[in-house]
TrEMBL record:
Topology class, membrane: Multi-pass membrane protein
GO biological process: one example: transmembrane transport
Alphabetized CDD domains for the sequence: STAS_SulP_like_sulfate_transporter
Key word Membrane present: yes
Chain ranges passing through the membrane: 130-149, 197-220, 240-258, 265-285, 297-323
This protein's name: STAS domain-containing protein
GO CC field: membrane
Keyword Glycoprotein applies: no
Major subcellular location class: membrane
Record localization: Membrane
Coiled-coil stretches noted in the UniProt entry, renumbered to this chain: none
Organism annotation: Cotesia typhae
Database matches in PROSITE patterns: STAS
């Protein structure tokens, strides 16, 4: 806390129209042609090639003296891991173990090491497992390349950490149970089981496309080998290139020596590799402490993967994530504001209990988007914070005209200030809702001011008023403090309220225990 620093500001009280007029406000050009021009203004084919083929970027700038030894050591280490793990993962896909080593030959195109994720298939099909795997690899390549062209990497943003953790942990259980038969030498009935992101799609798509012509299985990232590569000093893709050359040597000359390796050994390699994935169960405790909704996503995804299947688990997890986003967006954070004594700060009264309410003024803070889906929540929370329902008040006024005595416990409210400084979006339905609120409160003698509207929000309000040709005046201020001082200086508040409205200095003196915040 900086007790020896004070902030003193002297300026006029502004409305939003004053700011626009004095400081030359102009709405940005949002035309398609302008957007395309801005996006590709600095476009260079060399830059595009460097992003698509990272080797063109890092190889010319490669620091041979500092990075070469680390990359060679990392490549050798990862190659040693590739041999048993690749063979084990090939067995997991029910194809010859040598296929697992072939997969890694395509991996130098990628930015990460590879991990085989596939499913157990029955041998009763008219096609051999290797033939099926080859076709699947080609299909995966086409899908990944299409996703790269359409820039669908943003889909990964819908996969939360809780979903990924629960999904991979559940998948680890599936893989572990599939290896019990080989660990124990049992004959069991086989059953069906089954990151820059946009450039990973291209790299893996090309790798799978080429690999499909050499009887390879689909590959993707391997967390274990990526961690090992980093831990032993790997810094660039040269480490992956070294690893690929060593694996080529194994395929050509050492492969036959590994042929008699027992299946139980390969199964044990798979189970040991799952250790880190099983330890992700600890994430559930973390998610429970941080967010109950994230914990629910984790549990739902994990249980669905185990009870039903892997693809169903991913679907259920994605649905839970979308539902979470919808619920959060439909019920954004709102609060009632009050002034910090001696300052121009306005804080949440539920969290800051020594703030002071200004007589005759209620301030409401809204954080989120105001649209057709949230307008009812916004109106409900606003009325609750204001303490006055304008529709009921109008009804009471009508009854009072018929000489029916109606108690008026809301007569002190004269100004309602809505803080939109955290409003991220407003659609026409939101503008209509705010307009209706202003009209309803004006009927009962309460002024409604808006504060802190961003440029896009202000433009939407002005556009809706222009198109719909409405006469409702929106009083918009750049800050809550401008709105408060405008209400006071323009005598919007009754003289009785002004007489009981303490000055900042009086409030500051009466609350010396919290002065100099």
């Amino acid at each position: 806390m900086t007790n020896n620093i004070e902030l003193i500001i002297r300026r006029p009280v502004y409305q939003q129209e004053d700011i626009d007029r004095y400081y030359d406000y102009a709405e940005p050009d949002k035309s398609i042609s302008r957007s395309v021009k801005n996006k590709y203004k600095n476009f260079k084919i060399t830059s595009c090639l460097k992003k698509s083929l990272p080797i063109l970027d890092w190889l010319p700038n490669y620091q041979w003296r500092n990075d070469l030894l680390g990359d060679i050591a990392a490549g050798i280490t990862v190659a040693v891991m590739h041999i048993p793990q690749g063979m084990a993962y090939a067995m997991l896909g029910n194809v010859p173990p040598v296929v697992g080593i072939n997969i890694n030959q395509e991996n130098f195109k990628n930015t990460n090491s590879s991990l085989l994720i596939n499913i157990q298939e029955s041998n009763t099909s008219q096609y051999s497992p290797l033939e099926v795997a080859t076709v699947v690899t080609f299909g995966v390549a086409i899908i990944q390349l299409i996703m790269y062209v359409l820039r669908l990497g943003l889909i990964s943003s819908l996969l939360s950490d809780a979903l990924v953790s629960g999904f991979t942990t559940g998948a680890a259980v599936h893989v572990f149970t599939s290896q019990i038969k080989d660990l124990l030498g049992l004959e069991l009935i086989k059953r069906r089981g089954v990151l820059k992101v946009i450039y990973e799609l291209m790299a893996q798509g090309l790798g799978n496309f080429v690999g499909s012509f050499f009887s390879c299985m689909p590959f993707t990232a391997s967390l274990s080998r990526s961690l090992v590569q980093t831990a032993v000093g790997g810094k660039t893709q040269l480490a992956s290139l070294v690893s690929c050359f060593l694996l080529l040597f194994v395929l050509l000359w050492i492969g036959p020596l590994l042929e008699p390796l027992p299946r139980c050994v390969l199964a044990s390699i798979i189970v040991v590799a799952l250790k880190g994935m099983f330890l992700q169960v600890k994430d559930l405790i973390k998610f429970f402490k941080l967010s109950a909704s994230d914990a629910a996503v984790w549990i739902a995804t994990f249980l669905t993967v185990i009870i039903l299947d892997v693809e169903y688990g991913l679907l259920v997890g994605a649905i839970f994530c979308l539902l979470k986003l919808i619920m959060l967006s439909m019920k954004p954070y709102t609060c009632k504001l009050a002034v910090v004594p001696g300052t121009e700060l306005y804080l949440d009264t539920n969290r800051y209990h020594k703030t002071v309410e200004i007589p005759g003024v209620q301030m409401f803070h809204y954080c989120g988007g105001l649209n057709f889906a949230t307008k009812l929540h916004f109106k409900k929370q606003l009325v609750q914070a204001a303490g006055v329902d304008p529709l009921k008040k109008s009804s009471n006024s009508y009854k009072s005209e018929s000489k029916e005595v109606i108690p008026d416990d809301t007569k002190t409210l004269q100004v309602l200030i809505i803080d939109f400084s955290a409003l991220i979006h407003m659609d026409p339905a939101g503008v209509a809702t705010v307009r209706g609120i202003i009209q309803d409160y004006i009927k009962i003698g309460v002024y409604v001011y808006l504060a802190g509207c961003s440029g896009p929000v202000f433009e939407m309000i002005r556009k809706c008023n222009s198109v719909e040709k409405v006469t409702t005046v929106f009083m918009i201020f750049p800050t809550v403090n401008d709105a408060v001082n405008y209400a006071r200086n323009e005598n919007v508040i009754s003289s009785a309220s002004i007489s009981t409205w303490p000055t900042y200095q009086q409030i500051y003196d009466q609350n010396s225990s919290i002065s100099r915040l």
